[in-house]
Fold this sequence. Notes:
- The model is unreliable at 1-49 (pLDDT under 50).
- The protein is α+β, with helices and mostly antiparallel strands.
- The N and C termini lie far apart (58 Å).
- It has helices at residues 2-21, 128-136, 175-182, 217-225, and strands at residues 57-65, 72-73, 80-84, 89-94, 97-106, 109-117, 138-144, 147-152, 157-163, 170-172, 187-192, 197-202, 207-211, 233-236.
- The longest helix has 20 residues, at 2-21.
- A hairpin with a 2-residue loop joins strand 5 and strand 6 (109-117).
Amino acid sequence: MLAVIFLLSVTACTTQLQDTSNKDNSGPTEETSVSSQELPLAPDSDITLDLEIVGTTWLWERYDDMAALNNIVVADPTMYTLLLNADGTYQLKADCNLAGGSYTLEGSSITLASGPTTLAECGPDSLYNTFLVKLDNVATYVIDGDNLVLNLWADAGNMVFAPSTKISSSKKVDWDTAVEILNTGQVTQVTQLHNLQVTLTLEDGTQIETVEPFIDEIFNEVQLCGNPCSQIVLATE
């Protein structure tokens, strides 16, 4: 419609200039010009860019199953990442594998079309296949605070991502200091690895890393903590 209006405007201006040229040119005349800056620019693609989600590296933190039967807490979100580029492509890391593809945004709807993917075997505890399958079934998205939430088709569940800037701040402390931090009530998630490494995620996204004296000791400390630790999400590999 804009193109038709512009064409009519240019035709009218051309006719007016031709009519003026047939009149007496002895007096001063006023030139008519159309600045290209005044014309509406057509978008380069059909992608509607949401600056809240495009250009950010998103780290997969958890999957919330709507039936609460198959919830997933990702032990190391840095191993499962998603980056939406401004040109309509995306890159992701799924544990030891890398992949890419294209995406489309329309309002709150989002579709991820898978592309080339490496096929390395990441180990029996890896979530790489689960990550890829769920991304293929994403239908819509919402921004919840700082987090990106991808909603799956048929209300199957939600993939919750945090921006890399939110949880990139981390520091290492000794075990006794970690226990003291745990008891402050500021910890929202505790992650334990088989090598005794423990990560405490605080309310502001800061991560505290420590090493427990023996396996599952961090979970014992959570129980001893009582009410201040009652809402902590526990994760282990």
